[in-house]
């Protein structure tokens, strides 16, 4: 089997169920941005050891990356068609529970954190900004048609999760978080 199909050479692609749309379609932008966020998460994970100390962390992200893939599938499913892997409220609760657990181990924020730190932390900050864009684009899809409202809640919570994950990794790896220093007048 060849990896290329040549079916997109004229600027169109297929949604789920074979519906053809422009590659600039809002749905394509939204699920493509979910793919970008997922790739940035993968980059962050590539900087983290796979030893037993980090096993639970990797497991959490395996779940998150799988759910993000499912969101992409939901966004690629045309209005009125059945979704194979529907995001549920329990998926949002999973993020919230993990945010609360990791945040409890972090020092309180006293200043704005600059998106940086360790390579893993910086990659999770990048993934956070891409997740925010995916959320905005999912809202645009919702304006044009039907979108599972839990998808938008999940993407919103995902950006919070990735912020905490970046801080958590930076702390666990002993990297000082750079913060915004207010200049005194």
Automatic annotation (TrEMBL):
Record-linked InterPro entries: CblAdoTrfase-like (IPR016030), CblAdoTrfase-like_sf (IPR036451), PduO-typ (IPR029499)
GO cellular component, one term: cytoplasm
Top-rank taxon, per record: Bacteria
Pathway: Cofactor biosynthesis; adenosylcobalamin biosynthesis; adenosylcobalamin from cob(II)yrinate a,c-diamide: step 2/7
GO biological process: cobalamin biosynthetic process
Principal EC category: transferase
Keywords: ATP-binding, Cobalamin biosynthesis, Cytoplasm, Nucleotide-binding, Transferase
Molecular functions (GO terms): ATP binding; corrinoid adenosyltransferase activity
Compartment(s) where it occurs, according to its Swiss-Prot or TrEMBL record: Cytoplasm
Recorded coiled-coil stretches: none
Similarity comment: family membership: Belongs to the Cob(I)alamin adenosyltransferase family.
Cross-referenced NCBIfam families: PduO_Nterm
Protein name in the entry: Corrinoid adenosyltransferase
Source species: Aneurinibacillus soli
Highest classification ranks of the organism: Bacteria, Bacillati, Bacillota, Bacilli, Bacillales
